[in-house]
Amino acid sequence: MADHGGGGCCPPMDLFRSEPMHLVQVIIPIESARLTVSYLGDIGLIQFKDLNAEKSPFQRTYASQIKRCAELARKLRFFKDQMSKADVKSSAKSEAKPEFNFDELEIKLGELEAELTEVNANNEKLQRGYNELVEYKLVLQKAGEFFKAAQSRAEAQQTEASSQQAAEDSLETPLLKDQDSTADQGKQVKLGFITGLVPQGRSMAFERILFRATRGNVFLRQSSVDEAVIDPNSGEKVEKNVFVVFFSGERAKSKILKICEAFGANRYPFAEDLGKQAQMILEVSGKLSELKTTIDAGLSHRANLLETIGKQYEQWSELVRKEKSIYHTLNMLSIDVTKKCLVAEGWSPIFATQQIQDALQLATVDSKSQVGAIFQVLHTKELPPTYFRTNKFTESFQTIVDAYGVAKYQEANPGVYTVVTFPFLFAVMFGDWGHGICILLATLFLIFREKKYSSQKLGDIMEMTFGGRYVILLMALFSIYTGLIYNEFFSVPFELFSPSAYACRDAACSEATTIGLIKARDTYPFGVDPAWHGSRSELPFLNSLKMKMSILIGVAQMNLGIILSFFNALYFRNPVNVWFQFIPQMIFLNGLFGYLSLLIIWCTGSQADLYHVMIYMFLSPTDDLGENQLFPNQKTVQLVLLLLSLIAVPWMLLPKPFILKAQHNRIHQGQSYTPLEGTEESLQVEAGHDSHDHEEFEFSEVFVHQLIHTIEFVLGAVSNTASYLRLWALSLAHSELSTVFYEKVLLLAWGYNNWIILIVGIIVFIFATVGVLLVMETLSAFLHALRLHWVEFQNKFYEGDGYKFAPFSFALLVDEDE
Questions:
Q1: Number of other residues whose CB lies within 10 A of the CB of residue 93
Q2: Which residue among 193, 497, 764, 773 is least crowded, i.e. fewest CB within 10 A of its CB?
Q3: For the whole model, what pTM was predicted?
Q4: What span, in angstroms and rounded, lies between the C-alpha atoms of 292 and 296?
Q5: How many Cβ atoms from other residues are within 10 Å of residue 602's Cβ?
Q6: DSSP sequence for 562-616
Q7: Model confidence over 498-550: pLDDT tens digits?
Q8: Residue 741 and residue 539: Cα distance in Å, rounded?
């Protein structure tokens, strides 16, 4: 949620607890209702309650206005569709307020839609006519070629026969090969013909169906068109054949017409006379030229119209969305019996009270209403929504917490600590300052271009990455820090802060091994000494270091979670949770794993086995410790801690349900009574409400819930501590993978002394590093850090059963299409 705390109107941002909220009631005169809601939408700090939930959308007061808005939205979608087809882009949103109101916009959009629809219809009609003329011209040309060929053959026959009579009938005679040229004139039949175009893909089937339907009593000639033509009916480019069908008789004609219609063949008239054919071709060419000019003028007019629409499209779209949201909000308000005012109820932050009152006063003045709106605070037991004012830096961290569950109203917010602990735990698993620098550069690129990307529509993965850019920034910075501690740069150690503290005893210890090394200088000042890398004891040393560090971090974070539960109990004035939840939990966790953490810190370097110390603390607490003795009176201390941990379990389990039952009985004692005669009706109603509100206390349910909670904590203390060992495991995996890619790919390719192999090796190393270590390992470490926060940390104190503050705000409106 955007930070609304600009200027000096709001208190400083506090993420630890959600903003204090109150339920407000606003009584608005009906003449200023629309403007009032509009001004409240500009502020965006009030969440209206639906006071007409029992009514259907069509029964509400402003249903007709919403229909008008929906109709305008439909027109705008039509414009957008037309602009996308014409490749016209809408102008960027203007900050200036629109120059016309809603009624003027409705008239304007209606006129534009009618004009654009008419232009489209005319253009479609002209384009159809143009495509028909193009096809007609092709028919005239191709069919004319058929008849010219027939005429030339007829003239040849006339020369051979030297008969004047044959010359008069020679136009059709050669076309019917099976007709006897010397037949009687009385027996000769006048043939009809049909010309047109048929799609090439259907031409063979067209010919077969014609032959079968007429039993072979037709003569068909086809010729393919060189280029695809636009079909007048479908508007798509289709490859076609020009055909001429000769037939005899009306029955054959009707069959041919039906077949043409079935196959989508477009028919065109044709004259036998060659002179008429030439004249018709000239006429068609002239009409095509005229139509082309007309169509171009229509398209130019349409383009200008769409450009005009595009300039103001975003402004109009925003105005319609605002109006629709205003009337949706007005429909949530209840109308007074006098039908002269609307009553609104909603949640708002306490700090926004003055802003809301100023907006109400301004709306009264601007609407020239004689009566102002009335603002008052209502007292309720209903749980308010949760509202954290975040900025672009803290928003992504708060989103991580909200994905688990929205905080209950004013409970401690883990988002404050997540800002630091989340990237730190990620970095513990990802520690390599070379990889950290790569991620840092990629993140800085996103941050420097955030203005550009924030206004663009990005893909799902890119949008997620861009939204969490500041999380990734801190992850990269912490990775550089832990990488310097581990002393790993793409798995290669460097003597950054001083030379190694170890040196060779003699010239024979040139290999990277701890045998023969002696401490020659002061301890390496920061991080792991580079001499450890490549040594025989590197893995045992780093395993021990990272495993112990994981336990320390885990116990510290779990303690933080339990301490936050203490602050929650103090804030909500719940001493039962302090005495019977916080204290026994602290004793149990620290009596076992806090003690282990102290042993790790104080006894590092001793010969004692910490595994044995912890195991025998449970199995044989009274036995002698022997070589596992680390300090005086250790056995006594361990016995006391073990006893306290055992006492803490029933301490958590038993007292709380009985205390809650006693509190319930004390609070509701004597509240079941029968109202006396003459009691006011309002009091009776109130008593009736109270009797419904105070449900019976189910002791068994409370006890079972407490039992589950206790078992979960006791088992979770062990499993959650073990779960933090994933920090060690993933850190080791990342380090080893990095070493493998460096030694087995880059160094191996370098050893061949061949430029081609070296280049291939570098390319493979880059792709392996980016694909596996910078993408897959980043995602893996991110998910594990997420789990540690959601499960191991937040389950100690975070209920997360609240609901998010969703104010009526124009800034949060999203385009319906998106």
A1: 12
A2: 497
A3: 0.79
A4: 6
A5: 11
A6: HHHHHHHHHHTT-HHHIIIIIHHHHHHHIIIIIHHHHHHHHSTTSS--HHHHHHH
A7: 988 888 776 666 554 556 678 888 889 999 999 888 788 888 889 999 999 99
A8: 17
